[in-house]
Every structure is written in structure tokens, then in C-alpha cells.
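As a next step, the fold was encoded as C-alpha cells, giving this record:
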Amino acid sequence: MGAGHAHKLYRHGHSPVHALPPHCKLAAVFCFVVVVVSTPREAVWAFGLYAVLIGAVAYVARIPAGFLLKRLLIEVPFVAFAVLLPFVAQGERVEVAGLSLSVSGLWGAWNVLAKGTLGVAASVLLASTTELRELLLGLQRLKLPPLLVQIMSFMIRYGDVITDELRRMRIARESRGFEARGVRHWGVLAKTAGALFIRSYERGERVHLAMVSRGYAGSMPVIDEVTASRAQWSYALTLPACALLVCLLGWIL
């Protein structure tokens, strides 16, 4: 699966969280998200405790708060959707600062914001402490269908190649005096997209032929066998176990 393809989300470190096997972290994050989603939205205090748990993991992983908060901006579209819910939802309404808002819409907005933010934060922490190559090895270890793992592997490997191709095409346009300033230039941009698609397709064919000539038969060899001890599993599952306890209290109380 190739050598290191470090991404912008990854933050190099030597913390106990970084040292955990990738499949342990993947399983822990998945279980944590499932527990958060299963928590009743009325248990507001529970989501506060989930945030404390995320903060504790970030502290152990030595991930700065600014680094984490900056990357949470990816959920801005969900925030915009949540803001609209109190205005468009039906049912009982309440006056807030002179605005007529739906009660069910307010609860729905809170539900989306709280659970979405916690899920994104957990995913960012996973990406911040695990390299892309390790994530793919972890997915292999968790028995994800090999074809899906191959597709993700190729996307990671050649995403930068396609991006660089687009950059060269942009430089070529600008060197000829082109600047996209309005609708009348959309045709040129559309042709650029078409040319990029054709170049990517042709490059993909050449790569496939090169792989076949080297013995590729539809499956990639497993280069590294990732294993985890019982202690590592216990350490990784501490987060979802604590979250499950909070969830159960949320349903009981």
C-alpha cells in the first residue's frame, strides 16, 4: 500500500494513543459514535460528559485544542442545516428573542449539533493520531471487503497526482492570460474538467497495465500484519465503555 502518505489531519507524535494499533482505534471510534447517537437528546448533561471524554483523549494524545477546533470547521454545512430547523419545523412553537421557533425544531437542531460535533471530533482525533496507511491496514484487519480497501488505497495514492495535474493545467491557463471572472468563462472551466477526466482515465489505464505486468491479479498483498494485545484492546475500548455507561445513565435518569 505504499510508503507514507501523511495527510494534513495527521499530527506526528509519540503518545499512548498514537501507539495503539489502528484497528483498535477504528473499533473504539465506531463504538463511541454508535453510543453517542443512541443517547436520548433530552439528556443534555450526557453530551457534556462525552465532550469531556473527547477532551481527555485529546489531552492524552497531545493534540492541541486549537488544532482540533480548527478541523471541526468541516461540519459548518451541518451547522447551517441545524440553524434552519427551528424555523421550518412544524408543531408547538415558542417565542425566543422575538422569533417564533418550533420546539421540535429546537430539539432537532440540538440533536444534530451535539451528536454531529462529537462524531466529527472523534473522527478528527482518529485521523490526527493515525496515518492513512495505518488506517488501511486497520480496515484490512477488521475484515473490511478487500475491494473497498483497494479503492480507498488507490484514492489516497493518486489523489495527489490528480490534484497536481489540475494545478499544472491551471498554471498553463494563467500563463496564457486566462482568468475566470464570470459566467462567460465557465465553458473554459468545463473543458478543463473534461480534459482532466480524460487524462485521469488514461493514467489509470497505464497504471493498471503496469500493475498487471508486475503480477497484479485483482488483490493487493498484505505487507504488514497488524496485531494487538489484550491490554491494547482494553486501553482503546476505555472511551466507548465510559460513553456506554453515560448513555445508560441518560436513559435511566
